[in-house]
Amino acid sequence: MWEALIGFFFVFVPYAIPRTSATVSINSFSTSFPDLPAKSAVAVNRSGTCGALYVADPLDACSSLQNEGTEQTRLVLIIRGGCSFEDKIRNAQNAGFSAAIVYNDQNDGSLVYMMIHPKNITVHASFVTQFAGEILKRYAEEAIVRCCLYPNHYESSWTVLTISFISFVVICAIAVFVYFAPRHWSSSQGTLYRSQRVDVEMVEALPRFTFSSAHPRDCHTEDTCAICLEDYKDGEILKVLPCRHGFHSICVDSWLNKSGTFCPVCKHDLATKIACSDVKKGIRV
């Protein structure tokens, strides 16, 4: 199950990167382009960021930019190359722009994940293809156009899918644990219980003798049963454990079947399967 979860992360999580989309509006005309936000730049919130779009001067934004716009929110369009992404973004920020859109200088249709140092970066920064950048540049040079950056709801749905899938896997794992854990515990308890009981054949094979107060006994048997605390009476059948302690036959059978595998007096464990031959040599039934 964990292997499947790890595989899911490698396959689907790259799609869950919160991309955005750039929308340019000219009078009644509007179109959208996919873009990829720069790492560590300020993220675009749900309401988006809109403002007048200007073409960078100079276009590569590798030096100080001109910003003669009067709008409160201004976005700048920059071409890739000439210097680092961080230099471009900082120059745009220093010039008073609220967001920077960098477009590819190569016509390969790919989006580049811009890596910048987050220290003191306060503007949005996104990367678009060369095709999108050329269209934005053409319209921005002809007139003042309104450009907006919005979170991509399609990509957000991948994030929701990721969370949903992980939640489903966790719930399944918990359900499997809840289902099998009691059975495993019950089985282990049963095995433990069975291991703490003496085999019936072994109990039956224990040597016995008839108690007589008038004859000496070749075992460590007192005149009182240590299990029921009753005195032995002549003619009662006693059983002797491998440790040479004797008890009422009924008492020791019940003890070994219910209470454990050890002698009630010396705690010798019968589960060690010590042979009873030594007992049989000295005790006759």
Polypeptide structure, described:
It comes from Quercus rubra. This is RING-type domain-containing protein. It is a single-pass type I membrane protein. With 285 residues, this protein is of the alpha/beta class. The chain folds into 2 domains: 133 residues, Glucose Oxidase, domain 1, CATH 3.50.30.30; 83 residues, Herpes Virus-1. The protein is built from 7 helices and 10 strands. It has a 7-stranded mixed β-barrel. The protein has a 3-stranded antiparallel sheet with strand order 8-9-10. The chain is rod-shaped.
Quick description:
One of its GO terms (biological process) is protein transport. This protein has 7 helices and 10 strands.
Strand order of the largest sheet: 1-2-6-5-4-3-7
Low confidence ranges: 1-19, 274-285
Radius of gyration: 43 Å
CATH architecture of the largest domain: 3-Layer(bba) Sandwich
SSE-based structural type = alpha/beta
- Dominant shape: rod-shaped
Domain tally: 2
Supply the number of helical segments: 7
Domain RING-type: 225-267
Main location: membrane
Subcellular location: Endomembrane system; Protein storage vacuole membrane
Signal peptide: 1-22
Summarize the helices and strands and which ones pair or pack:
Elements: H1 2-12, E1 20-26, E2 29-37, E3 49-55, E4 74-79, H2 85-94, E5 99-103, E6 124-128, H3 130-142, E7 145-151, H4 153-195, H5 200-204, E8 208-210, E9 237-240, E10 246-248, H6 249-258, H7 277-282
Parallel strand pairs: 3-4, 4-5, 5-6
Antiparallel strand pairs: 1-2, 1-7, 2-6, 3-7, 8-9, 9-10
